[in-house]
Amino acid sequence: xxxxxxxxxxxxxxxILYPSVRIFFLFYTAPIFNSNYFSIQIKIFxxxxxxxxxxPYFSLLSFHFLSLDSIIILLKQILIGIxxxxxINLVLFIxxxxxxxxxxQTGLSFSNFFDENMLSRSSIMSVFLNSIIFLLFLSLxxxxxxxxxxxxxxxxxxxxxxxxxxxxxxxxxxxxxxxxINGIHVIFPIIIFLFFLNISLLFLNKFIPQLSIFSIxxxxxxxxxxxxxxxxxxxxxxxxxxYLSEIYLNLLNIFFKI
Length: 258
What we know:
The protein contains nine helices and two strands, in the order ααααββααααα. It is mainly alpha-helical. It has one domain. It is elongated and about 95 Å long.
């Protein structure tokens, strides 16, 4: 029969506490898991279960969990969890950029939708594009990508690592610039179409001054913008599918640079 003393119990507690803290804060900021439909209790339960599964595969920590080193490492786990979860969340932020640009160009920015899940207001097109990218994310096993990232993070950032490389913040800023560029690329054909449409309305107003462009221009731009969006919907779907397949590898490469 195996005998456990108090020191063994504290040792096991140490090796479950720190991974679960990192995983919990990653779930708190990562897409899908940061939804209000996942309560705090579910996030804590998932964090503890994943920690119980993975902790036998890593080296055991021997320091006391009430020491100064323990508190510093605990704060590092919180920072790493938030950082990784925020980085994954940036991947899906592309649709917010595209939807807001499209709404601004077509005059649909006034029609907002209150998202009870995220407790924020977004344009209708942003909500629609968010639904598309979330479905694509799930169809490509994005939730499994997040769990794989959790496991990989313990190899990239071990629990007892000493020095934190703050260059990772500059890498994330560069990563966000890549998200911004891709967000513009998603909606770029429609922007070009609306640009030529506005030029056409300009010449129409010049040659036919009796025609009030201000009264019909908004309706024309609105209608043509929505029609062009649905015409390019297959292109948007194809672009987002390739984007999700490639951008996650770029995100992993950023963490492997550290």
